[in-house]
Amino acid sequence: MKSIVDRLVRAKWSFMQPLAHYPSQAGVPVSDLFVWRKSEDWETYFELTDMTGMYDEGVASENTRAVEVILFDIQGHEVGRERIMSPLHRRSVIDVSALVPSVAGELGTFCVLHDATPESVASIGSSLSERGYISFRYKQAPLRSYVHGNLNAASRLPDGRVERLAGSGLLEREFRLQHELRPGFEYEIGVVNASGKTQTIHCDVLAVVDGRRIETLSVKLPSGGVHAFPVKPHGTSQRIVIRSRLVMARPLVFSFKDDKLAVLHG
Amino acid sequence: MAYFFPILKAPGCSGWTTVYNFSPNNWEGEKPATRNISALWSDGVSWRSHSLGQLEYGQTRRIPASELAEMTPEESQVFLSLTDVPIPPTASSLAEAAMPFTSYPNWRATLGLTSESGTEVAYQGEIHPFPMPGSLLTFGHLQQFAADIENYLLFVNIERNPAIRVGKLEIRNAAEPEKLAREVEVRSNSISFVSLDGLGFTESDLPLILCKGMSAIPLYFSRTKDGAFLSLEHTHPPASSVVYGKQLDAHKHLKKIWFSKAAAA
Prior knowledge:
The structure holds two protein chains of two kinds. Chain A is mainly beta. Chain A is built from four helices and 20 strands.
């Protein structure tokens, strides 16, 4: 009986509310919605991998190794598309900030969609999802800070339209970041709305010691939009809770100290 | 499901781990409880543990390697656990005590490193015991090139069996997989450091890293020689880029391709 009650309680959070929806057409390429930053202080890079070559296919055909990088501004509006060829069995580091038009601002998102699906992948009913690695260089530091993608956030339909796939529900839910924000550091908590609907995002800043709410920051984020909440702990460690209807509002955490950057996935 | 939080080790750095006793969301069956923090390590024969006390629900605790120095052997690799009941001090297999569990996201800790110059870097992580013998395929996308930069692969392994096994890890160039660039020993229930420098690779070369006989989480760690700047991130299995359908078949297929290329040498 307890099990049935548990399932019913859980259903209000899970029924018809997947982490990410399937694309409306099978077999189309999928990508995370990665964050880009571009300014005097910021450069953003993407590690491009030749997926078809990795599966030992398309070795003789450069056409199968093309990707399309689609760029969006802070509001989720498309600001550019670039086609790039990935080299066979080699590494290619794409300077994404160089692809962003200067009028597009300093913060936005992008996705990377592979033109071809390896036959060995398609034959098992699967698709490619680009959830690879981006890196940020801050204030011309000698090292870039890496962070990986993880969500099937967007797909490109045959007519070129981008479909956003992240799931959302009827109830507001909490993403409680298991990361201590410490005095002496400054933080920006980056949240992407990869769902197809506008979402209201609240960022509660709590004291670690007693869970007391210090402040709440809020933003209305259109589909495809991104926002960076600034948090500066004073005197005591803090943590954050992100409230929204997104099934998983997993943030990027940018931390700064002495002009040095570290980035991690929440 | 058992999982653990390693205290990281890396050249020129000291490790620390911050453990959280609160659920990462409010909808996956939150079970508030005071929980036990333990430090576990393998002595090669048994899994040993030492209690680090309890953590009340809602609380956070940062545990630096220095705090464990007097209670664990210097050469051992320490993993932390957060369990509903205390862990026995000695066990022939890794503890199976009840632990809090979530999927959206997984219940994690902050795994960090601090350099001698005070710079910090961290990622959110946990590690599940790997099946034996296991294997690893990873591509070294995250290596960085410039003067005064050092690059390492941190090979993080934990298994239920406390024995310290030795495996061989190979580094090759994905464009020339028949040529072995470096072979090094790695150990189970440990973090093994593998230098990625001095291989003759450039930024356009894609390192192919293989280990037949042992699985691991591959962490890519870069530092400036003075420790002023650090970079740390893990990679996912290459076939995690395959979604829907029979994803496990893609993992097997990819490993078969690249282990065959290396074996053809």
